[in-house]
Amino acid sequence: MPSPAVVQILRQPPTGLRVLTLNAGVGKDDERLAALQGDGMALGSGFSVYPAATNLEVRGGFETSTTGWIVSGAGATITRITTDAKFGAACMEIVTLGGAGGEGAYHDPAAKIVVTGSTAYPVSVWAKSISGSTTLMIGVDWYTALDVYVSTSSAALTMTAGWARYSLAMTSPLTGLRAVPFARISPAAAATYRIDGVQFELGSVVTPYIETDGATANRVAGRVRLPRAGLFTATQGWVATCMTMGVASAIADIRPFMWADSYAVGANNFIIPVYRTTGTWNVTRYAAGVGTEATGPADASWAVGDRRLVVARWSATALAAAVNGGAFTGAADSNIPTLVNANAEVFAAYNDATAAPVDPISSQGRWAITGKGAPTDADSALMETWRVAGAVPTLSQIAMLSYASKPTCLVPAKTQDAILLPAYFGG
Q: Which of 191, 233, 294, 387 could form a Cys-Cys staple with 132, CB 3.0–4.6 A?
């Protein structure tokens, strides 16, 4: 049965705001408006929450020059232009004549990037086709420390007429200790294309672009903290998180929420929903190192760009989760931690004792809702309609949740403000 709030929502405003704490690693709409770096997504795409990263390509943007890049191919040219750009006010335009294979733009081999052998290094570039061939080959030429060529990692991708990001996950060869990223046309063909936001980084995750213009630059891991007083307890509560996935389902564990005092093995004291690479969304709750990980619903596969809605609930006797509108599944658990941490982590998990990130979602957090009741399978199905619609739910929509769910707070993931929901919602 819908909450009585549905008949009051137009008569009474929300009870106030809860101010989130966002660190410098969180991407949001103000960064998208500035368009100097970031995820390059449209306004309203939520919070970008990714691991810490360093852009090893010292000239990822072309705000001042193309120094650090060369062109290959007889008659081929590279030019810095200011009439177009994905980030900032300039990009690089490349013109190839199709005389030979491998024509295009290369990081200058005279200043190769120092890397470690047998290590993951994704490369990414924002590009657009202007005319001619649309087959863009991105990748890296690997060399030894003595500049002896070892091998090439590459992928042929199809450019469009608008700016789009293209990426390739690679592992350097054992003896590959120097790297030369490139964005070229292959097979040989005449083409005019533009690139911007080039990134070469360490790790298995392609993170939002970090602006460089002559030196490497880094971004800290994203962190979103929600003051949790009155929103839920360790005995009873729930959280729904909607995310646009920035990584495929084969990536390491993902934790879209965490309330914890200790993440240390043997002294664990936390409540965390988590995606396991075995293909399920689980819910864990530990009290002083003793607890349960309840196996939740299966979710074996998704692609980058897919949206996921995960709802985790806990009570004095059980843990359960639901994904994309499905029914709740879980297990019995009566380990109730005594948690004193004033904040919960949303869209990532952090170890407060070390201030170290633990499995950020590596994605865009679109919205989150907390509650201190018990959402039903019907509530899960209702929230799924919001995920499918692709917009932050309105207060009128949230009011349609069952009265027993008692929703308490909406995180719209637009600014640092979260909305406290009125008591007539059931809270």
A: 191
Strands 318-323, 190-200: pairing kind? unpaired
- CA 327 to mean position of chain CA atoms: 26
Contact 365, 331 (CB under 8 A): no
Sorted by sequence, the CB contacts under 8 Å of residue 50 that are 6+ apart come out as 25, 27, 205, 207, 208, 219, 221, 222, 246, 360, 362, 363
Mean pLDDT of the region 49-54: 93
DSSP string computed for 61-102 = S-SS--TTEEEESTT-EEEEESS--SSTT-EEEEEEESSSTT
pLDDT of the residue at 4: 47
Please report, to the nearest 10 degrees, the dihedral formed by the alpha carbons of residues 381, 383, 389, 393 taken in order.
Answer: 160
Tell me the three state secondary structure of residue 163. coil
- How do residues 181-206 score in pLDDT, each as one tens digit? 999 999 999 999 999 999 999 998 89
DSSP assignment of 281-298: EEEEEEETTEEEEE---B
pLDDT confidence tier of residue 360, bands split at 50, 70 and 90: confident
* DSSP 8-class letter at 277: T
Check: CB of residue 46 under 8 Å from CB of residue 412: no
SS3 8: coil
pLDDT tens, residue by residue, 17-50 = 999 999 999 999 999 999 999 999 999 999 999 9
CA distance 338 to 377: 28
Cβ–Cβ contacts within 10 Å for residue 40, how many?
21
Average pLDDT over every residue of 218-243: 95
Does residue 358 have a pLDDT over 60? Answer: yes
Let me know how many helices (H) and strands (E) the chain has, helices first: 3, 31
With DSSP H G I counted as helix, E B as strand and the rest as coil, what are the percentages for the chain, rounded to 5? 10, 45, 50
| Segment holding 344, helix H or strand E | strand 343-346
Percent of the chain with pLDDT over 70: 92
Query: Which neighbouring-strand residues pair with 18?
Result: 418
CA 167, CA 198: separation in Å to the nearest integer? Answer: 10
- Asked whether the CA dihedral 186, 188, 192, 198 is positive or negative, the reply is positive
